[in-house]
């Protein structure tokens, strides 16, 4: 059985764990926050991870545990932060909710099926690739439609046609209303940058680049693994952990060095089924109990709740690194040969 990621175990132990040993891992090369437009990133050296089949769960099931208080969690071993987009960085989840309702409310009524409810979004759609969301909702109502093709017009009564109709509604709403990022999420991004951490966006939506641009966040993320990347590279979508693992690879990190930040059920499942150091659940409506049962290590209402723990980890890391630096007075004194000390 593969051993659990060190930071995950530290999170369960709380602030009394081996923070010093974990924090030393933060002394790493800091990549540029400027996204290279039109440039495809080549993955840096990837540390070996436990092998598994694409799209399958890892072989170490997550132990049931109570979530750690965000102020007590040990973040010393976290080098990479893998963010979902909608509902985590931007309040676009509500835009998606409205777009899905505009699609399915009239469609289900015309089918004589059970009416569409807001709860259906969280139960069957949230966090999944668009066409998977269509399939999941239709299955919940016992409705079968032809698959069709990605090129289907939004008017087509196919899985792809309905998905394209939803995308049309989403883009129209985004253009009309715009989007601002959550201030608390921006505050955490700033804190991660100060600490020298690496960040990536992992989103099932193919609209992720447009949303990041609209929210003024595009320049912060050098790595974006979205629905378009997943389709192009054949990456299995959430709730499999593959998209997050790909983002870690592009950052040049092992999944065990990364935290997953999610608000959707399928996203938390993806993080919990992978070998990631930490899974942070953001409660935007799923509920704390559900996020806990899905496997979140830490649950927050806003992401700035993690900043004190991140700053504490940085302070500990600085102490550890100073102690190991032969140029510091403490280390230099310890390095004096015994003969010179006697003289």
UniProtKB/TrEMBL annotation:
Main EC class the enzyme belongs to: isomerase
PANTHER family: 6-PHOSPHOGLUCONATE PHOSPHATASE, HEXITOL PHOSPHATASE B
Protein name: Beta-phosphoglucomutase
Catalysed reactions listed for this entry: beta-D-glucose 1-phosphate = beta-D-glucose 6-phosphate
EC number(s) reported in the record: 5.4.2.6
Domain of life: Bacteria
Family: Belongs to the HAD-like hydrolase superfamily. CbbY/CbbZ/Gph/YieH family.
Residue spans of biased composition, Basic residues class: 27-53
GO MF: beta-phosphoglucomutase activity; hydrolase activity; metal ion binding
Key words, A-Z: Carbohydrate metabolism, Hydrolase, Isomerase, Magnesium, Metal-binding, Phosphoprotein
Organism: Agromyces luteolus
Segments of this protein annotated with the region Disordered: 1-71, 320-343
